[in-house]
Design a protein that fits this description.
Length: 248
């Protein structure tokens, strides 16, 4: 049985991962027990607990909050990830072990204006959130047994929007399928970067209205007129690597 350290266990994705354990054993510390922004807290927790896998979901993911407080965004998304990587590297050296590290990143590391991005496409984030997550990716690549997941996901049972854009294209994936892919990657030998998304890129309105018929149409221009930061135009991804590797 894999013993997994799950960060961000109280968040939307972390909560769903815990609900679908499927034979895995989880450590799911609270922020008080494991403060990823504190190197001492991370080192202490990792020294006192035993695990062979990390799923790193903890992040400041609200784009507006990241724009308003970029220092906080980088402290959590980049610095917090680096603290974990530093602690894992130390454990691996002392115990001569190999810890699997799965990092939940974002399609927002791509420029998200042309679409059909592959794992080898240039990374040019369009806002602070994307840059801070790309910084986390850079830290994770120090490790040997890493898997960076670039994704965007949604929960069909909980779509919080009253309107959605007809001209923002994504490869957003249902959260249940994303979790199934993560579970596969826990035990698989794949290392590197992988896009996890839906096989049918479409507008956010088309995707959400299939589950929430009452949702109203809007345009990207309607959304950004009330924002002080950029959002995607076309964040669709090439998922051919996912289709080749992941067998569900």
């Amino acid at each position: 049985m894999h013993n997994i350290l799950l960060t961000g266990a109280s968040g939307g994705l972390g909560t769903k991962i815990l609900l679908g354990k499927h034979g895995f054993s989880f450590l799911s510390p609270t922020r008080k027990e494991l403060d990823i922004c504190s190197n001492d807290s991370v080192q202490r927790y990792c020294e006192q607990n035993s695990f062979d896998t990390v799923i790193h979901c903890a992040a400041l993911a609200r784009m507006g909050e990241c724009e308003q407080n970029p220092i906080k965004a980088f402290d959590i998304n980049t610095g917090g990830t680096l603290n974990l990587v530093r602690a894992i590297s130390k454990i691996e050296e002392i115990k001569n072990t190999n810890i699997r590290f799965i990092y939940i990143s974002t399609d927002g590391v791509y420029s998200c204006d042309q679409g059909n991005y592959s794992e080898s496409s240039p990374t040019l984030p369009y806002n602070i959130y994307g840059w801070s997550k790309l910084g986390g990716e850079t830290a994770v690549r120090i490790l040997k047994n890493f898997c960076i997941i670039r994704t965007r996901f949604y929960d069909p049972e909980n779509i919080p929007f009253t309107e959605s854009a007809i001209d923002i294209m994504t490869s957003s994936i249902e959260v249940k399928k994303l979790i199934a892919c993560i579970q596969f990657l826990i035990t698989d030998e794949f290392t590197g970067i992988i896009n996890l998304g839906s096989s049918n890129p479409c507008s956010e309105f088309v995707r959400y209205s299939a589950h929430k018929p009452e949702i109203k149409k809007c345009s990207r221009s309607d959304i950004i007129k009330n924002l002080t930061f950029e959002i995607a135009t076309n964040a669709s991804m090439d998922i051919s690597l996912m289709e080749k590797i992941i067998k569900l």
